[in-house]
């Protein structure tokens, strides 16, 4: 009996020493060893604006001027190992459908705890000619303000980086198009970037006034007059923060990051919403944005936040496909359980599979 017990303990010890570390390292290796194909280079059409010599800054490495030029289309995206496959597809789609791809400046925001050098090298390997910079986001500072939501993925501090773009990006960047990583464009991003913001609006985004706006906040919020009166003087509608055109100068002047943080601090004291980084945006901006044509956000292709069921396209023209929701096309394709519309994402997938033949 004692000999049997000793044998069982020995086996348990061996499993603990050998099997567990292998499992952990395999998970880590997946994020590190994922390799991507090199994308083709895309060139400007003849009528694209050129950058004047007097626009070139003192650093002047040939490309540095684009990051402060108003003639460039500035695109901001977050970047992390978990979603980098989606980010790569999004970048490829932007370049492929742009009439002036060499006039696009990409501003990637990565967590301070991430391996930014690895992320930078991954982008450079697939897009050797891409004009981009990677900025560090101090996610520890925002972590203290985050409350748990209905889906753990929504609690990632990097989801809140869009609230800090005015602080992260260079002061010379006046307007930026913010894009989520789970989308692809099938139209020229310059059209979206040129969305008129009028004399006072801070941002433009796809707005959905048929959505049940009250559902984005808790009964605690609506039953408190001092809180619910927040929307008293505006026609507040839900809008999608995964596709936005932002005037960063106006954002900075109004200190809107602080306004968003104030609502997050209140949320820590009393639960007034359930859905991650979206509700603070609604509290500050809903009813005061410029609506973007819905063609720029064929949204919900990832299904709902619970099951991620397949969905169809909404009626109307399409300029951008957005897999918002729980299901992501790359995950469903890898699991051999794709939704029909995931086939529209697949052509932009740059993942180098083990079975791919060298061209």
Summarize the structure.
With 359 residues, the chain is an alpha/beta fold. It is 31% helix and 13% strand.
Protein architecture, described:
This protein is of the alpha/beta class. It has one domain: Alpha-Beta Complex (Spore Coat Polysaccharide Biosynthesis Protein SpsA, Chain A). The protein contains twelve helices and ten strands. The protein has helices at 2-33, 84-96, 116-126, 139-143, 165-168, 189-193, 219-222, 225-228, 248-254, 256-269, 278-285, 329-334, and strands at 73-79, 104-111, 132-137, 175-179, 183-185, 203-208, 238-239, 243-247, 290-292, 320-322. Strands 1, 2, 3, 4, 6, 7, 8 and 9 form an eight-stranded mixed beta sheet that branches. Helix 10 (256-269) crosses helix 11. Residues 1-30 and 53-62 have low confidence and may be disordered.
Low-confidence stretches: 1-30, 53-62
Which shape, going by the Cα principal axes? globular
The tally of strands reads 10
Radius of gyration: 23 Å
CATH homologous superfamily heading: Spore Coat Polysaccharide Biosynthesis Protein SpsA, Chain A
Distance between the termini: 63 Å
Name of the CATH first level: Alpha Beta
Count of individual domains: 1
Structural class, judged by helices and strands? alpha/beta
Question: Would you give the CATH topology?
Answer: Spore Coat Polysaccharide Biosynthesis Protein SpsA, Chain A
Percent of sequence in beta strands: 5-15%
Please name the CATH architecture.
Alpha-Beta Complex
Average residue pLDDT? 86
The helical percent reads 25-40%
Q: Biggest sheet, open or closed, and with what strands and sense?
A: 8 strands, mixed
SS summary, helix count? 12
